[in-house]
């Protein structure tokens, strides 16, 4: 099984588990989210250990082994991205299975389990026509000032959405044109989505245009831009001036 096939299979299986847990109706709210996080994490770690025993794993829900920093291959995973949305019965949550090789997000699979969909780096997703007012996906609760500035400069429309994976995949799927985040994220929030977005021909970088580098000792990666390539220059001009 190739790395991308493995990532896809694990993301799908974890997503199916999360849907099953939620459909039981035994837990609600934060308790449901905690159970989903824990059980999906266990499944993912078990599958990776079995299939790629020599690789390292960085997971939001597991203790960090800093010896990974010297490793060439590191799986970077978020078992449940968008715990709040998952707990609220919404669709905009995801499972991230990414593989960074020498710090570069090369392989990725992002499951959108409530939509029965997995997008991965084996696909070159067809992008819809980007003509017209750009749609900018932002956090449901705290849209960044950079997104507000881009919306004003490009006469775009901000679209609130849940998890980072759901927002990134909205751009991959052609449902949005730009995803801007600032104010705090971690490597597991963006590794798999960035890999998939780049495979689909999208622009992906920090909001100052710097490259996204993974498997760092400090796992904070606080800002992110994913957009259609024709918008990248204009968006970066705005976000750089907003610093």
Automatic annotation (TrEMBL):
SUPFAM superfamilies reported for this sequence: Carbohydrate phosphatase
DNA-binding listed as a keyword: no
Xref: CDD domains: CysQ (cd01638)
Binding-site positions, Mg(2+): 60, 78, 80-81, 189
Superkingdom of origin organism: Bacteria
GO biological process terms on file: 3'-phosphoadenosine 5'-phosphosulfate metabolic process; sulfate assimilation
Keyword terms, alphabetized: Magnesium, Metal-binding
Catalysed reaction, written as an equation: adenosine 3',5'-bisphosphate + H2O = AMP + phosphate
PROSITE patterns: IMP_1
Listed name of the protein: 3'(2'),5-bisphosphonucleoside 3'(2')-phosphohydrolase
InterPro entries listed in its UniProt record: CysQ/Inositol_MonoPase (IPR050725), Inositol_monoP_metal-BS (IPR020583), Inositol_monophosphatase-like (IPR000760)
One Pfam family linked to the record: Inositol_P
Cofactor(s) this protein requires: Mg(2+)
GO MF term list: 3'(2'),5'-bisphosphate nucleotidase activity; metal ion binding
Phylogenetic classification of the source organism: Bacteria, Pseudomonadati, Pseudomonadota, Alphaproteobacteria, Sphingomonadales
């Amino acid at each position: 099984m190739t790395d991308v096939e493995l990532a896809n299979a694990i993301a799908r299986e974890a997503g199916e588990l999360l849907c099953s847990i939620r459909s039981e109706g035994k837990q609600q709210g934060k308790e449901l989210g905690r159970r989903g996080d824990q059980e999906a994490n266990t499944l993912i770690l078990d599958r990776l250990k079995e299939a790629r025993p020599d690789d390292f794993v960085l997971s939001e829900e597991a203790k960090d082994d800093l010896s990974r920093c010297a490793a060439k291959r590191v799986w970077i995973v978020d078992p449940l991205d968008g715990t709040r949305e998952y707990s609220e019965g919404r669709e905009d949550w995801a499972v991230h299975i990414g593989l960074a090789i020498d710090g570069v997000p090369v392989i990725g699979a992002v499951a959108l389990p409530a939509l029965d969909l997995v997008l991965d780096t084996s696909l070159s997703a067809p992008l819809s026509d980007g003509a017209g007012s750009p749609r900018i996906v932002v956090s449901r609760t705290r849209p960044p000032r950079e997104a507000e500035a881009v919306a004003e400069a490009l006469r775009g429309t901000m679209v609130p959405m849940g998890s980072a994976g759901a927002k990134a995949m909205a751009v991959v799927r052609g449902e949005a044109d730009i995803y801007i985040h600032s104010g705090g994220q971690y490597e597991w929030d963006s590794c798999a989505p960035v890999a998939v977005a780049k495979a689909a021909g999208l622009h992906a970088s920090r909001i100052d245009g710097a490259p996204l580098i993974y498997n760092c000792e400090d796992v904070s990666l606080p800002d992110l831009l994913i957009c259609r390539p024709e918008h990248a220059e204009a968006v970066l001009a705005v976000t750089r001036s907003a610093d």
